[in-house]
Design brief:
mainly alpha, two-stranded parallel sheet, IstB-like ATP-binding domain-containing protein, ATP binding
Amino acid sequence: MENRLESRLKHYGKYKLLIIDEIGYLPIDREDAKLFFQLIDLRYEKKSTILTTNITFKEWDGIFQDTKLANAILDRVLHHAEVVNIVGPSYRIKDHLKQDDE
């Protein structure tokens, strides 16, 4: 099992750009949070990673169920980062809302 995990980390670590959508949408248990940290750490200052979430950074300890781990992840994610805060209605449901108006 350990070799498979190491192999998967290397797999996701090799891409020039990795996009991880909707951090916090689904619960992340402690073991998965540790793996996520390993992935972020592996890519840190070497490759580009885009993360999307509707969870504030202050709430990340709840996502990863560990304040120290969440802070370590955020430390790496936010260092050299460009944070884009998008405010407004959901882009995904805009077409649906237009249909309701018609």
